[in-house]
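Materials and Methods. Structural model of Equilibrative nucleoside transporter 1. The 177-residue sequence of Equilibrative nucleoside transporter 1 from Gambusia affinis was retrieved and submitted for structure prediction as follows.
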Amino acid sequence: MADQRGLDRIWILATSVCFTFTVTIGTFPAITADTRSTLADGGTWELYFVPVSCFLLFNLSDWTGRSLTAVFMWPGKDSPVLPAAILARIVFVPLFMLCNVQPRSHLPVFFYHDGFFIAFMLLFAFSNGYLASLCMCYGPKNVLPHEAETAGAIMAFFLALGLAAGAAISFLFRVLV
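The predicted structure was written out as tokens:
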């Protein structure tokens, strides 16, 4: 069993991965899938806007972010920049809520053009893949070798906790739009 000092070293990474997925699942797809194109005007783009700009771009950008960690890992495992970047991702919640999400009851549409939504989606998905992968890689590296398996299990638990919390909070986010 891992000693307490080893596990103290991963709590920031564990809560970071939890927060990453809370923001991601709280927003995607609950809010993002209800975004409508403002350029389609009944054309073909209206049919493909959500599948392409929401789901395809999310998955490609997320995969790109995850893949980049195989060749480039910055910030380092003890850097305060990593949790700060993860906390900064909360900005995507209001950004997506202020896009053309329909139907809406409370907030105005501030980012009307499809380009805003696409740019937000690219950054959102890439940061999700990259930052979550960094946390999951660094967790077991932050403890002694004999504690790595336990650290990996803890990281997986906090990832799942983030997924569940994001799913729960997605209902609130959608109601606020």
